[in-house]
Amino acid sequence: MYLVSACLAGVNCRYNGSNTVNEWVRKLVEQGKAIAVCPEQLGGLPIPRACCEIIDKEGKKKVINKDGQDVTKEFIKGAKKTLVIAQTIGAKKAILQSKSPSCGYGFIYDGTFSGKLKEGNGITTELLSQNGIQVYTEKEIEKMKSSQGSKK
Fold it and tell me: CB neighbours (10 Å) of residue 147?
């Protein structure tokens, strides 16, 4: 069983009310092989919402929205709820939205709201990784499928 970002499954839950549907991910959910979650919604943030990025403030990660509001608590709450869901379904792998302050893996936006990236992971990705769940982004699906010997 996979855990996947709801936006990749076609749910309009991104900050701007859109999705980034990936047909393979959508089919996993449709076939009952994956559960779709949006950590930001689980944390209580609305749709739409101001876009958010992670900043490093005095050695601590903070999530700030474009209006300057600190939404770190909501991101942590959503990450914890996502972890509970992952553990409940026995997910060992997650396919999450790249660059997201929740779900990004490897690279996230740099906190300047300029579209620039920096190395790092989103809040949910960090928590899932710390708990033994392998995280992939939608950009790594082909690599992930080939490592499993899947031709789908």
Answer: 10
Query: 3-state DSSP call for residue 145?
Result: helix
- For 105, the token pair is 């893996």
Across-strand partners of 118? Answer: 108
Backbone φ, ψ for residue 35 (5° rounding): -115, 130
What is the pTM assigned to this prediction? 0.92
Phi, psi at 79, each rounded to 5°: -65, -45
SS3 99: strand
3-class secondary-structure state, position 31: coil
Q: Kindly report, residue by residue over 95-128, the tens digit of the pLDDT.
A: 999 999 999 999 999 999 999 999 999 999 999 9
The tokens for 151 are 């031709």
CA-to-CA separations, 92 to 48, 62, 121, 128, 142, in angstroms, rounded: 30, 27, 18, 9, 18
Query: Cα(2)–Cα(93) distance, rounded to whole angstroms?
Result: 5
